Amino acid sequence: MLIAIFVVALVTLLLSAFGGSGTPSQAPVPASASRLLPAGPPTPEIVARLGVLRIQLPVSQSRVTAIGYQGGTDGALALAPLGRQANEGLLRRLVHKIVGGSSGSPRWYQLPGGQGPATSAIDVGAPAATDVYSPVDGTIVSIGDVMLNGRTYGSRVDIQPTGAPSYVVSVTHVRVDPSLSVGAPVTAAGSKLGSIVDFTHAERQALARYTNDSGNHVVIEVHTSATLSLG
């Protein structure tokens, strides 16, 4: 009996080594073609707050490369980010573990630069040409060109939020959709504003440090209505 078991084991070993298992090998599955198609609007997701104002994600979650905060333009107001800062220092991490702190998603990064408070501009990273949707419910109050070094790089879209009319939400780094006009109503995560402009040749983008690309993004700031009108 022991000899028979040994023979069966030996034959099995030889078949495995030289004959193969008989199971056909599978070729790598190609990437889904749907990734090359327009992603459509994002699922409603709040990323920042300012009092009663809620800022929603302006691009599809499937296109987001990273989210960063930095100082905004003159007069931009500090926002309260939701989620967790991914690049906070060791001391702050220890404090948050002891006393508790923000957690969960979305993860965001603190970026250098800007004039205003450190969280007064949201950079939502996504590839150039990604569709951009309104981050708030409201009305378009102005559309203007963004000039840099004498060249036009997309537009700035100003929205007066329905629930917080004393503020104006500004969206930049956007190539405006031709159908968009001043006075038009928009809905958060539902109304398309345009698409992300390629800033690769315009400036070195701080968000690129945390993405696998050049760091293209859409920028969101909040100003008071009076401050914006004076500017």
What do these coordinates show?
By secondary structure, this protein is of the alpha+beta class. It has three helices and 14 strands. It has helices spanning 2-19, 90-99, 225-230, and strands at residues 46-50, 53-56, 67-70, 80-81, 84-85, 107-110, 121-125, 131-133, 138-148, 151-161, 167-176, 185-186, 192-196, 217-224. Strands 3, 5, 6, 7, 8, 9, 10, 11, 12, 13 and 14 form an eleven-stranded mixed sheet that branches. A hairpin with a 2-residue loop joins strand 1 and strand 2. The radius of gyration is 25 Å and the shape is globular. Residues 15-36 have low confidence and may be disordered.
Briefly say what this structure is.
The chain has 231 residues and is α+β, with helices and mostly antiparallel strands.
Helix-strand pattern: HEEEEEHEEEEEEEEEH
Number of strands: 14
Helix percentage range:
10-25%
Task: Return the average pLDDT rounded to an integer.
Answer: 84
Computed CA radius of gyration, to the nearest angstrom? 25 Å
Strand residue percentage: 25-35%
Write the layout of secondary structure elements.
Blueprint: H1 2-19, E1 46-50, E2 53-56, E3 67-70, E4 80-81, E5 84-85, H2 90-99, E6 107-110, E7 121-125, E8 131-133, E9 138-148, E10 151-161, E11 167-176, E12 185-186, E13 192-196, E14 217-224, H3 225-230
Parallel strand pairs: 3-6, 5-6
Antiparallel strand pairs: 1-2, 1-4, 3-7, 7-14, 8-13, 9-10, 9-12, 10-11, 11-13, 11-14
